[in-house]
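Quarterly update from the structural biology core.
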Amino acid sequence: MINFLKKLCFERLGGSPEEHKAARLIIEDLKPTGLTPRIQKFKVNTFKPGKATLNILKPHTRAINANPIGFTGSHSVRGPLEFAETGADEFLKGKENTLILLSQKPDYQKYKSFATNKIGGFIVVDRPFYPLAYPAIYHSIIREFGAIPGIIIPYQNALEIIDKPPKMAELISEQKEYEGNSRNIIYEIKGFAYPEQEIVIGAHFDSVATSPGAYDNNAGVVEVIELIKYFVRKPLPRTLKFIFFGSEELGLLGSSFYVSKLQSPDRIKLMVNLDLGGTILGRNGIIVSANQEAFNFIEGWAKIQAMDIKVTADIYSSDCMPFIDKGVPALNFYRTDLSGSGHSSHDIPCHLSNNALQYIINSAIVLLTQLGSAPDFPIARPVSAEITKKTTEYFNKRRGPNYEAFDE
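Predicted structure, tokenized:
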């Protein structure tokens, strides 16, 4: 498993030629199963990683290497520089053309406030001890409010700015944005007793900019590959549909597109997502996004199987979310990462092991076999009011209340 995972360890930004290369490698690896994949293509807005600089102009001069924030365009802007913590609304009043330093990337509401108050640009502080990240703002937010110049700078440089605040700075960023082609790769193993009832098993195969994406999410990819290889030899009464989603990191675009094209969502009894896994040092978990009865069932199942898996009732920021939004119960298998290397150029295979990957695979095989074979499906709708509320709040915070990923 690790050997194939290593083959996939290159930057695979959604909609890029590299993401397409990863899709070809996955399809090639699964050829011996005899299954024919269905390729579901869709257009996405994407970008080529560029470069950025923060120039301190007054009272002293200095150049700080930075990265652009994805989708915020190419700019050269000057203005006063002030530390704004999280960018609270009361701070932004009267800050037109000011460059603001932030302790976190803005969400939908914060970005809207930036546009309303006509700030000059924003500077996000990266986490310490890792190579500089390359985050992005969802393109749907840019489309609604326009591109505000944005960059990310190293943690240590941010401390120096706060310690000795400059009066004037210049933000320079360069990056190329374009329309790319992304895709979902779909495999189906038809059920022999209840073929009209589906369990969807998914993992995204793209990565964030500048990251090889071993933990996030080549781990989930190889786990799903191994599940396909197992169940093609041992089909179940219910249909299993395996999906490798494209462009998750750009805003759950692959799963949103798939869900937007569903003609009969009620056919799907459950969505099982595998995102983040395989770490040598970490802890296994399952997030249950359904209802109390489903949580009780999964928690009891884990205890009966004597599995070292933490079971939690909550939502999970991944490709399960568009399914939950349609009322489909979901489970997310994951493993925490003590190295903290996710979403960085240090997300490499040395942090992962075959044993850790196999533990999740074996757990998923046992659970899927029981769920796919049960005369009465033990995880029933509806999704609870609490999970539904959290899902709505999740999408409103990240995308805005009027967001539509794709036309129906």
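The two ends are 38 Å apart (CA to CA).
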